[in-house]
Specification:
Helix content is 37%, strand content 35%. By secondary structure, it is of the alpha+beta class. It has two domains: 69 residues, no CATH class; 36 residues. A three-stranded antiparallel sheet has the order 1-4-5. It starts with a helix and ends with a helix.
């Protein structure tokens, strides 16, 4: 997540745990013919979210926040991918350094 630390420090990005209601609770109801509709409990789950403040580039006016859900496994997967990229780049740098050394020795 590029610039997360700086944007968080500036108060422009934040993370939160948000309750998301999948299905609202229904209370027991009797209609005019004494037919009972059973009560049902609310169905919900928590989401981990990144909230990014947005502004109009021309006027500076605040716009609706951008909200994106993340799972911890997504974050871990992205970190693993970046670690592999870093390792690959470091190995490539070592190859370039060896080639530079060999060329200077000529």
């Amino acid at each position: 997540m590029r610039n997360y630390k700086a944007m968080k420090a500036a108060g422009k990005w934040a993370v939160r745990k948000q309750k998301v209601v999948d299905k609202a609770a229904v209370s027991e109801v009797k209609d005019g013919d004494d037919v009972v509709r059973s009560a049902e409990a609310e169905q919900s789950h928590n989401e981990l979210q990144l909230v990014q403040k947005r502004f109009d580039g021309n006027t500076g006016e605040a716009q609706a926040d951008s909200v994106r859900s993340y799972s911890l496994s997504e974050v871990a997967s992205e970190r693993s991918r970046l670690a592999a990229d870093i390792k690959r780049m470091q190995d490539e740098d070592k190859d370039w350094a060896q080639m530079e050394k060999d060329l200077k020795a000529l």
